[in-house]
Design brief:
Radius of gyration of chain A: 24 Å
Distance between the termini of chain A: 21 Å
Oligomer: homodimer
Strand content of chain A: 25-35%
Number of helices of chain A: 8
Number of strands of chain A: 24
Largest interface: A-B, 136 and 136 residues
Chain lengths: ~425, ~425
């Protein structure tokens, strides 16, 4: 190891190449003390000047709070022209966020004909088809059933599809991975209502339809309906936001986002899938052997480093925390490894509690940057044993045609100016 | 048991008096099917009419989302006149919420001189006093240290003090228990910075001061500083809201809310507490024997039923879910029991995962209301073995003078019209 790669003795030996440090820094306390202080401009204390805002009364109470005006850049981004509804998506700014939850105002959106303005008192949900008796539910009806809550991620099947280009697009994490969010969802188990309507034993599929003007609909197996499907009325404590399906959305934990139908108005029990446009022309995984995977539901194990990432600037060699998100539609994250040398060597990251099934898991690792080029990567493993693939392995299997379920390892290249950029390694 | 108290056979035997049902309803699946459907107006399905909002494109994407206009009643409440800053508080509407998280826009606020309008680039935090070298940190400095995230409740020490009146005030849960919220907090461990500045072994206290114009300050033991104190920059994923301490607040998990100093500008290491006005004239627990408890920090084990609660109307006998929140500043909720007969009989509630230390825990229980009077209660136990006291036991110890740390059992009386009201039992 070159001398410049070696951290100071206080950190002990590095855990992987190019400055990745031992997890002891996080697990055993404050061994990192001095690392940041020594490399930044923290100054000796003087009596602090009293700023203007400490000299006058502040703002009054507000019924519903908002972020600071100084955070006005922390917003969702979308390609649609202003005030133009229609199909599109708005992306979560993970480069500005930390923790495991996504605030509802920044939860990603995907809609096919804008956000319908639904009066909850008039909204109805019908369950029909291969059932003993069809039923129509108002929101008041639904509110009478037992509820459950769970923290779950949602990810668009097309998230990260931008990596499926021959050359790395010079865009940020929000543009590449912004169709991913995590919230505390509360609602009625679909199995409760299916017990009530009485499912024909021959029924194998459920078709879910939204009340938006595109009539967005998807099919899902009845096994999922009886397992953990949830009809959600609450998101992060309050009623689901309009952009996320107010007044009731379907949650199919771990399944591709498009199937979590918003503005839910209809559930039809059938013995075959609907073959809707969103499961034939779209949301089907094209392979390079001219075949395709249709009805691939769970989102595979995946992770991405949020800090540092494009738009962040490392200001000089020294200590940096590497932090990111990991998730699996098949279960719970078991481990995340990080690399600073493009995958040549790896060291384990710390998983921030709570680590929950089908939820985002925040991971953290310590990095002593030597000021030179680096290639940062993270690699997640879930409790089914699945390991996030390298981009090369992913492309070898699927080629460059498939824009869905892209879960290969993301590389952020760091140059000697401390700039981060999307890179292939 | 009177015949009218007996639920239908499908539920099996009740688990406690006056209609409290077995947890099997939640634990073993959808045994409740039909209970709500039979008692509400869910109708046989007809082809659903197509509503107006399904016939036209919806609203376009928005950079930062907001709740539905139909939820405009779901707001914080406060006694201060409009546009009048100063001391006061704004309360979380738990009667409208479900799940474990509180959206940041509805997180309770307590401020003593309004919300300062702090420019994060100019904000500074000093750590000084009994340290080897004082340090001044900018937000950029702080952002260089390792972070950790945790989901934690905050509760004002004065929360629920309204129950300390001889007669039950006819107000709702928001007015009584609204100074309570839960969020995903992310920041730098205070212990990391204290290792850097070097604490004098003789130092026993830390004094924390805010940058608001009241200069709100509190003292806390250095043991807490070295344990789990966090300097938070993020709340529910995004930067802390101004009303909750932007750009950096102190989090002392489980300690009374007032000590979690917002707009943090100064931490002074000392060998005695400051005896600030907020720890002498206020936030001291008066007892009925003319004594007082000063420096009582952790909030004791507590719970409250949020549904049903005042303002909700039970529409006819039948199945209702009882749902609420439990928490302990001393650890993790181990169990919650519910009663429908004012505490004569109890049955266990289901704890909704995740159950985390020093966080809100959502509990749920099944209730078959017979249409007659009932007294709903919840009683929490934490993993230290502490059990939430009855109001009688609480008053016997502390009398009616102490407005702080009121953690006795809340009773909601249900009358035969299905109305809920604050009651003493």
């Amino acid at each position: 190891m070159a001398r410049k790669d070696r951290p100071r003795d206080r950190f002990g030996e590095p855990a992987a190449g190019n400055g990745i440090m031992s997890r002891r820094i996080f697990l055993e306390g404050a061994l990192v003390a001095g690392a940041a202080g020594a490399s930044v401009t923290a100054a000796r204390a003087e009596p602090l000047a009293v700023p203007a805002w400490s000299k006058q009364p502040g703002s009054p109470f507000t019924p519903y709070g908002q972020p600071s005006k100084f955070e006005s850049k922390v917003v969702r981004t979308f390609a649609n022209p202003a005030n133009a509804p229609g199909t599109g998506s708005a992306r979560t700014p993970h480069q500005h966020l930390d923790g495991m939850m996504t605030p509802s105002g920044l939860h990603f959106e995907r809609s096919h004909s804008g956000v319908p303005d639904i009066d909850p008192e008039q909204h109805r949900l019908v369950i029909h088809g291969m059932v003993r008796r069809s039923m129509v539910y108002s929101l008041e009806n639904l509110s009478r059933y037992p509820r459950t809550s769970r923290i779950a991620f949602l990810e668009c099947a097309g998230n990260s599809g931008a990596l499926n280009q021959a050359q790395p697009a010079q865009v940020d994490i929000q543009a590449i991975h912004g169709l991913l969010s995590c919230a505390d969802w509360t609602g009625v188990k679909l199995s409760t209502l299916l017990d009530e309507v009485g499912v024909d034993p021959a029924a194998t599929w459920v078709i879910a339809e939204g009340a938006d003007s595109s009539g967005m609909s998807r099919s899902f197996p009845i096994a999922k309906a009886m397992d953990d499907a949830l009809l959600c009325m609450y998101q992060n404590g309050e009623r689901v936001r309009p952009s996320n399906g107010y007044p009731v959305r379907l949650l199919l934990p771990g399944f591709e986002g498009n199937m979590n139908v918003k503005w839910l108005r209809r559930l039809k029990l059938t013995n075959e899938p609907q073959m809707a446009k969103d499961e034939t022309s779209k949301y089907t995984v094209l392979l390079q052997n001219e075949k395709a995977w249709q009805f691939v539901f769970p989102l595979e194990v995946k992770s991405v480093i949020t800090h540092p990432s494009p738009g962040h600037l490392l200001k000089g060699a020294g200590f940096y925390e590497i932090s990111g998100l990991a998730w699996s539609g098949n279960g719970t994250i078991r481990s995340v490894e990080v690399s600073a040398d493009g995958g040549k060597t790896w060291a384990p990251a710390v998983l921030n509690n709570p680590v929950l099934p089908k939820a985002l898991t925040r991971f953290r690792a310590a990095w002593q940057w030597n000021g030179g080029p680096a290639q940062l990567q993270s690699r997640a493993t879930d409790d089914t044993g699945m390991v996030q693939p390298s981009r090369a392995a992913f492309i070898a299997e699927r080629g460059l045609r498939g824009n869905y379920h892209f879960n290969a390892i993301q590389t952020w290249g760091i140059n000697d100016k401390g700039e981060a950029a999307n890179a292939y390694a």
